[in-house]
Amino acid sequence: MSNPALCYASSAWADLDQARALFADLRRFHPDWRYVAAVADIPAGAELPADIEVAAASRAAFLDAACREAAAALVVHVDPRAVVTEPLTELLGELDDADILLLARFHEPSEGRQEVIDLDLHIARTGTFNIGLLAVRTTGQGPTFAAWWADRVANYPDDIAPPGYADQRWCDLAPGLFDRVAIVRQAPPGLVLPLDREP
Q: What is the pTM of this model?
């Protein structure tokens, strides 16, 4: 019998300890999940944002491989810098009627010209959804989405967004391409995702 979920964190070597800490927290709430760290091997001497770009490519490639393998009913990506203080059961319940789960990066309109410039335009350029958490079913449209996403990130890495944001930005197209997408406007209180790098 397959596990109910495979949870993975895609990171550079520098974040591996954070991934271990995240998994320790998640295991308290989801001991039956399988946990995998997809660690990007960054060449010695590489400069930023090389580690971010390689981690992004591995994030998409791993999701595609996990969906094709179908060793679990659900594949969940969590950023290794995330903080989880309660079960993700209710959040992932959004997949009862969907195959792809995306989290909105913000849910209130900005006020004032400077905030629009600093936040809204930054998000418009770098992606509407926070893929610090991304979940898909390994049935239905989940594998199709994962294969599409991995292809776009691997073959068009710098064509849609500033370096380091391409995987996130491609997800903006998902709700128009797939009709079984659940969009959660705000992460639950027990899930704190890392803030974006400053615009």
A: 0.88
